[in-house]
Design brief:
By secondary structure, the protein is an all-alpha fold. The chain is 78% helix and 0% strand. It contains four helices and no strands. The longest helix has 40 residues.
């Protein structure tokens, strides 16, 4: 709720008070006609934003996994094993 109040540039208490008054029927608003096309676009936009966030998280996770496996391979690469084997046999 604090995020919503901050986005409206009001104190969270004021938002809480207005919500309480609306629940109690002290604040009544006129019905607003909603353009169905705009509502559908907003719904799609929310869906796409959510999907985008999920994909960004997956991408970051994959980058970390690649870095991790690359680091492990570098430590155990065949060339490093060959050098170790040569030094042991000499």
């Amino acid at each position: 709720m604090k995020d919503v109040a901050d986005s409206l540039y009001i104190h969270p208490f004021m938002l809480s008070l207005w919500r309480k008054q609306a629940r109690e029927g002290k604040i009544v608003v006129k019905a607003v006609a909603v353009n169905k096309e705009i509502a559908a676009e907003l719904k799609q936009l929310r869906k796409l934003k959510k999907e985008h966030e999920r994909l960004k998280m997956e991408h970051d996770l994959l980058k970390k996994a690649i870095a991790f496996t690359s680091a492990r391979r570098a430590k155990s690469s065949p060339s490093s094993r060959t050098v170790k084997a040569r030094t042991r046999s000499e």
